[in-house]
Amino acid sequence: MSLNKESTAKFIRQCRRVLHVSKKPDREEFLNVAKITGIGIIIIGVIGFIISLIAQLIGNV
Question: Which of 40, 53, 59, 61 is 20–30 Å from 24 (CA)?
């Protein structure tokens, strides 16, 4: 990919458009996203812990 003046200008226009459309989330939306993210992290951690326990049990047999 060649980096020229046209492609740089196009990228800057796209960035401006995204920044113009985006908005700051209100408190309720932020809390919902934080809750969902936290639940996802906990679920992934539990799955990893269970896999680790199973691997230790199989290793001791």
Answer: 40
